[in-house]
Amino acid sequence: QVQLVESGGGSVQSGGSLRLSCAAFGYSYSMNCMGWFRQAQGSEREGVAAINSGGSTRYAASVKGRFTISRDNAKNTLYLQMNSLKFDDTAMYYCAAHPYCSGSWLRVPGYNYWGQGTQVTVSS
Fold first, then answer.
1. With helix as H, strand as E and coil as C, how does 27-38 read?
2. How far apart are CA 84 and CA 72, in angstroms?
3. Which of these, 22, 26, 92, 103, could form a disulfide with 117 (CB 3.0-4.6 Å)?
């Protein structure tokens, strides 16, 4: 069983930055694929960024060039550096994991372990 715990969310003004962290517990060493998803109020959950154990990454078009995903395998921790934040980035952000990456790496069905989420609020 893998447990994921997010932290680092908060409130920030437009143009600001935040860094999210996701600590993995349990059989986290077997989670080749890890990703960040977000869900705004009234919207479906969407993929933001994903990374495999080798360091290859995928990004949603809406965040490419502004967000950076990284992972520290020794610390079992996933990160999301978010720069140039916009009002539309406001959402609950979730960490997710799966033993292997498939498809676009950014689809909700591609992950079977999820954290509880951390709220990011961007004021304009």
1. CHHHCCEEEEEE
2. 24
3. 92
Quote the CA–CA distance of 117 and 115 in Å, as a whole number: 6
Report the C-alpha gap between 3 and 120 in whole angstroms. 21
Other residues' Cβ atoms within 10 Å of the Cβ of residue 69: 22
C-alpha distances (whole Å) from 42 to each of 12, 39, 69, 91, 92 are 21, 8, 25, 10, 11
User: Which two tokens mark 17?
Assistant: 């930055």
Q: What is the DSSP letter of 62?
A: T
* Per-residue pLDDT tens digits for 87-110: 999 999 999 999 999 898 999 999
With a CB cutoff of 8 Å and minimum separation 6, the contacts of 64 are: none
- How far apart are alpha carbons 115 and 92 in whole angstroms? 11
How is residue 43 written in tokens? 């919207």
Whether the per-residue pLDDT at 57 is higher than 80: the answer is yes
Tokens of 21: 């962290």
